[in-house]
Design goal:
This protein is 43% helix and 10% strand. The protein has 760 residues and is α/β, with parallel strands linked by helices. The strands form four sheets. It has a seven-stranded mixed β-sheet with strand order 3-2-6-7-1-8-17, with helices on both faces. Strands 11-16-15-12-14-13 form a six-stranded parallel β-sheet. It has a two-stranded parallel ribbon with strand order 4-5. The longest helix has 22 residues, at 484-505. It catalyses: Couples ATP hydrolysis with the unwinding of duplex DNA by translocating in the 3'-5' direction; ATP + H2O = ADP + phosphate + H(+).
Length: 760
């Protein structure tokens, strides 16, 4: 196999196909009901359109000019765009090699390639932004720069640690992670070190350290990479953009190859990815974008829905298609999802889509209040145990939470109830040691075939796999209890089940065919189904769905999270809950606890997002918007009107020592110039730091999410005596005042901060 991006010899091929193996059939992609992954593709172009609803059909047949697809959750967007590409190819309008479909995960790209093969449109390039850019960068680097492409570092955090050491800045583990995230955000927003502080303030980011320190660490990090001749993940995009901008001959070569573009999850595009897309396009407009502003939940990584919402401004003649027929969720689930968005505010809310369920009615969502978090976890485990006893497969149930730190209590509750589970977002399936060892064993057995004594008496593929994996620890019955032994067995059992499904779909399949299938799945990071309840954060659940979903911890301080301060951050939290709700097909359970631990202060209340939606609660009535209905809008000559954000006037902040007007965010928090003398009570500052460390540990969040160092210094200088004085300190805010005010004032008064329930 030639290296990625290099043309194989012989015969010579063009750069865009270098290193790509031939497409093979796969069982890893979802099928239409009653369909088979090995059935013949549609008989012709018109047959590709069969089974599409009117809006999906419009997407599939709108093959010229710019097209914007606004697709709500569960409305079949992937089906629409893959049928669009396949229809164009089968009708002879699009050449497969001229199409580049871009998405955000290897799994989504693999699913797209699989669906296109099933539709008779093999040869279309479906890749992530980074994969497509890396292929181009590897090929063109010798021509544009000379020599070999520098090595890509797997983990940048070590270089950030080295940068901190070189800068004589001490970072603990959490700060190291947070500073690394700030560097990543800076790069995808095309922010250079010198501009970091101003850009962070403008974006409303609360930096984990002084912005000047982060800027210094960022600059040193870049210097170290240059000295070591390495690049990072973000550099792949930055360098590709640089080459396409500077070398018009190379840009022309790329544009001559790719003439038609499709971008999925367009609401998650960063400024850097948008710039790369513009360079790929040049002055052409054969672009189809698909997204949903109401599912924008990654703004902390630089993603912004503005590119989606401004699409008609940039392309006045665009065709806009709205998909609102929800094929995933019951009317009851869809009603709750619509209700959440009906109360939203902001630009994304102004373009919300009102879903219309296409499924039969199901049960109403269940709302449950518990005294404390252990009771909440035990309650969910009991309900899940009852569902399993009633015949519900464990793999069709999920528990979704706001932060990964919440998983431990649910892992324990499920283990105590004897319920198998899998933790999503932890170690990837194909990276697990037992899975790697099983793959080696299966590959060896496939190579030796009948000469392998393990296969004696194994007459078909499933029995061969069971025989091989029995040597790796698989047994017909699962081990008792939970823990590492049970988790290893679950991984091997998933491979056994996959072999049975694979053989059922392809009766003549050999062990070598299965090994090839596993390799393809590993490349796409598409793990086989593990028969266990899924535990996942709301962010990692994006793009997935289950019959039954438990949304837990839906209380103020967790949903919205306590460090969400601005209106934009609060609205993103609402969208995150919307994503969680729309993961459920049939049944939805929402719960919250009044206290963190048994006997703790029962001070929590259900999330404000449920006001007016859960039974017995009062709240703001939903408002109608102009973006709710589905349909098609063709070729507007003028862009739609958007509501500009209201601006509020502010009195200039002045130094309380010298009176100078302050502009630096850090100085504004202290209400004094950095050079002016501090009257901070050192003992009070240390007591506040100790209290903050306890709060951060209890909540599982970085310390700066409680209060930043600057805010603690400001408190120690001001020594507030009541809530009004504390509220005047920048960085406190209403939510933190309600959450931590009593503790902080007690510490300032010389008493113990309390905080017995340590809630977040």
């Amino acid at each position: 196999m030639p290296p990625c991006g290099q043309p194989p010899h012989p015969p010579p091929q063009t750069w865009q196909h270098g290193g790509v193996t031939a497409a093979t059939h796969s069982t890893l992609f979802p099928q239409v009901p009653g369909g088979s992954p090995y059935s013949a593709p549609p008989s012709g172009a018109d047959a590709v359109l069969e089974g599409l609803d009117p809006e999906q059909r419009e997407v599939a047949t709108a093959l010229h000019g710019p097209v914007c697809v606004l697709a709500g959750a569960g409305t079949g967007k992937t089906r629409a765009i893959t049928h669009r590409i396949a229809y164009g190819v089968r009708a002879g309008i699009l050449q497969p090699s001229s199409v580049l479909a871009v998405t955000f995960t290897n799994r989504a790209a693999g699913e797209m390639r699989g669906r296109l093969r099933q539709l008779g449109a093999a040869g279309v390039q479906a890749r992530t932004f980074h994969s497509a850019a890396l292929r181009q960068l590897q090929y063109f680097w010798p021509k544009a720069v000379g020599g070999s492409l520098p090595r890509i570092v797997d983990r940048k955090i070590q270089i950030v640690a080295d940068a901190a050491a070189a800068s004589r800045i001490r970072l603990d583990r959490n700060e190291l992670r947070d500073v690394t995230a700030e560097i990543e955000w800076s790069k995808v927003t095309q922010t250079v070190p010198a501009d970091y502080a101003a850009a962070a303030v403008k974006a409303g980011r609360e930096a984990p350290r002084d912005p000047a320190e982060i800027a210094q660490l960022y600059a040193t990090y870049e210097d170290l990479k240059r000295d070591r001749a390495v690049i990072d993940f973000e550099d792949v995009l930055l360098l590709t953009v640089g080459i396409l901008q500077d070398r018009h001959d190379i840009a022309d070569e790329v544009r001559a190859q790719y003439q038609h573009f499709v971008v999925d999850e367009y609401q998650d595009v960063s400024p850097l990815q948008q710039r790369l897309l513009e360079l790929w396009l040049g002055d052409r407009d054969n672009l189809c974008v698909v997204g949903d502003a109401s599912q924008t939940i990654y703004s902390f990584t630089g993603a912004t829905p503005d590119h989606l919402l401004d699409f008609r401004n940039r392309h006045p003649g665009a065709t806009v298609v709205k998909l609102v027929r929800d094929y995933r969720s019951s009317p009851q689930v869809v009603h709750l999802a619509n209700g959440l968005l009906a109360q939203a505010r902001g630009r994304a809310a102004d373009h919300r889509l009102e879903l219309v369920s296409q499924r039969d009615p199901g049960p109403e969502p269940v709302y449950t209040e518990y005294a404390d978090e252990p009771a909440e976890a035990e309650g969910a485990a009991r309900r899940i145990r009852d569902l399993l006893a009633g015949g519900m497969p464990a793999a069709e149930i999920a528990i979704l939470f706001r932060t990964n730190s919440q998983s431990e209590i649910y892992e324990q509750a499920l283990a105590d109830a004897g319920v198998p589970y899998q933790l999503r977002g932890a170690e990837r399936f194909f990276d697990r040691p037992e899975v790697r060892k099983a793959g080696i064993a299966l590959r060896g057995a496939a190579r030796f075939g009948a000469n392998d004594s393990l296969l004696d008496g194994a007459v078909d593929l499933p029995s061969q796999v069971r025989a091989v994996l029995s040597g790796e620890g698989w047994t017909p019955t699962p081990p008792a209890g939970s823990g590492a032994v049970r988790e290893r067995w679950e991984s091997l059992a998933a491979l056994v089940n996959l072999a049975q499904d694979f053989a059922g779909a392809q009766p003549d399949a050999t062990l070598a065919d299965l090994v090839a299938e596993l390799d393809e799945r590993a490349n796409a990071q598409h793990a086989p189904t593990v028969q266990g309840v899924t535990l996942a954060s709301l962010h990692s659940a994006k793009g997935l769905e289950w019959d039954v979903v438990f949304l837990v911890g839906i209380a103020e301080g967790m949903m919205p999270i306590t460090y969400a301060k601005t209106d934009e951050q609060i609205e993103e939290e609402r969208r995150l809950l919307y994503v969680g709700v729309t993961r459920a097909r049939e049944r939805l359970h929402l719960s919250w606890a009044l206290s963190r631990s048994p006997g703790g202060r029962a001070s929590r209340r259900p999330s404000r997002f449920l006001d007016g939606l859960r039974p017995g609660s009062a709240g703001t009535a939903g408002r109608a918007t102009g973006g709710g209905a589905g349909g098609i809008e063709r070729g507007f000559s003028t862009a739609g009107t958007t509501v500009a954000p209201r601006r509020t006037s502010r009195t200039p902040a002045r130094c309380r020592v010298c009176g100078r007007t302050l502009s630096d965010a850090g100085e504004m928090k202290l209400m004094r110039c950095d050079g002016c003398p501090s009257d901070m009570d050192e003992g009070l500052y240390e007591r506040l730091r100790e209290w903050r460390a306890v709060q951060a540990h209890r909540s599982g969040q970085p310390a700066f999410c409680v209060f930043t160092d600057r805010t603690l210094i400001a408190i120690a200088e001001a020594m507030p005596g009541d809530e009004r004085e504390l509220a005047r300190i920048p960085g406190v805010g209403v939510r933190k005042l309600n959450r931590y005010g009593a503790d902080v004032l007690a510490i300032c008064a010389g008493r113990d901060g309390g905080g017995e329930d340590g809630e977040d």
